[in-house]
Amino acid sequence: MIVVMKPGASKEQVQHVIDLVREYGLKEHPIYGTDRTVIAAIGDKRSVDKSAIENAPMVEKIVPILAPYKMASTEVKQERSRIAVGPEKFPLGGRKVGVVAGPCAVENADQIFRTAEAVRQAGCIGLRGGAYKPRTSPYSFQGLREEGLKLLSEARKRTGLAVFTEVVSVETVEQVCEHADVLQIGARNMQHYALLEAVGEAKKPVLLKRGLSSQLDEWLLAAEYIINAGNPNVILCERGIRTYEEYVRNTLPLAAVAELHERTHLPVLVDPSHGTGHAHLVPAMCRASVAAGADGLIVECHCDPEHALSDGAQSITPAALMQLMPSLRKIAQAIGREM
Ligand code: PEP
Ligand code: MN
User: Fold this and answer.
1) pTM for this one?
2) 202 three-state secondary structure
């Protein structure tokens, strides 16, 4: 349920409600809005009569939360969440659309530094690159791991870009946190609940990709795991889903962006690289994503896609990225946003 305080409720009055919520065996999540405070009370299913809380001073009303995901829902918070990422604290989820680009995997120093430089010059806000790669085949390149993380840290130092990189296991969360600005949870791990809880305890924002065949409810419940574990800074990433189609690696359902903006206050990014699997389709789907209202994009970009160690076919070149950016800017402006 949500306890809505009257405007002007004091800190002590809010605290009194929090104390009651705890007494009822629920967990409180206060949300301090511009004109009023609401306290989401979540957890336990015992049938104590909680409506008495309505009598507490300065409580306006109690509203049930109908969505299965509570904290992620617009029922609890209508204002869009803005999540500050990277050294420049770019506010993902605000008016500005942010583009993140970089290779699928960090391969070597020269590759990541050259790409980072190009990505910065194109006007992106973040650098992507996997150091730990969850590969379908055990014989494929698995990533440079810690060495890759150190290269990403150095790339951030050189460019000021926010580093987005994947974490694949509970044991490496701490290590990845030392080097990353945003912890990526890959599609294959969207329902790895122990990992979701582990990044929920971390202090860095999380980019949660949609599972290969997950429905929106399942995806939002995965986000709920992270928020419930203590980390409200979750960014969703639509990366396409498995369908019967063969002309694409995945089908990219952009209606999800609009639907998510109704259901959740969390920022939504789109990954048209994994969402199509083919570099020639990426620019068009980047433009379509911005038009659909995406808060940002995450795009695979490689200086030499033909020799990439992973996902070369879906990686655009720095030149293509450079060419793409002005058209994205125009689309953003056309829908009242900025880039
Ligand atoms: C990636 O970002 O390189 C990746 C493995 O993505 P996904 O988890 O969406 O497949
Ligand atoms: Mn990839």
Assistant:
1) 0.94
2) coil
